[in-house]
Design goal:
The protein is mainly alpha-helical. It has five helices and no strands.
């Protein structure tokens, strides 16, 4: 029954996808609901799990943030060989930092949930991302279709 309620909640939350803080809060709430349901967290587990998970997510976000900023301004076609090498090294460093972080937090999380739940967490995170991306893609396609329809109507009027 929970699953039936969570999936529509996810799509409702994602339907307002934008970079607004309200939309991001809704997406995060949908993610929490999905993970809680998929892991079947007891209230005691949830109380201990979510602070550790949030800490992990925040640290992971910080690791990616610097690299994402560098990548936005980086053009491999105009960069020198040395700049390209530095970007590759930076990407490898970020991957290693993320791996180290995941290993550290996996150990901490395993003190709160079972190994089965931790495996389900990875699957739930991936499923959530896929569902969100599908929803965003679907919205973009609908917007494009609406734009094409509007263009056709405008062309007929002219």
């Amino acid at each position: 029954m929970k699953k039936i309620l969570i999936i529509p909640l996810l799509f409702f939350m994602a339907s307002g996808f934008a970079q607004s803080p309200e939309a991001m809060k809704k997406i995060e709430a949908a993610k929490i609901a999905l993970i809680t349901e998929r892991l079947n967290l007891s209230p005691e587990q949830a109380e201990k799990f979510w602070p550790v998970y949030r800490e992990f997510s925040n640290r992971n976000r910080e690791i990616r943030k610097e690299f994402d900023q560098a990548r936005r301004t980086f053009d491999p076609n105009s960069a020198t060989e040395e700049e390209n090498k530095r970007m590759l090294e930076m990407a490898n460093t970020v991957k290693q930092q993320q791996l180290n972080l995941e290993q550290e937090y996996s150990q901490r999380i395993l003190k709160v949930i079972t190994s089965r739940q931790l495996n389900n967490l990875r699957r739930a995170e991936n499923d959530f991302k896929e569902m969100l991306l599908r929803r965003i893609k679907s919205q973009q396609m609908r917007k494009q279709q609406l734009q094409r329809n509007n263009d056709r109507l405008n062309n007929r009027r002219n």
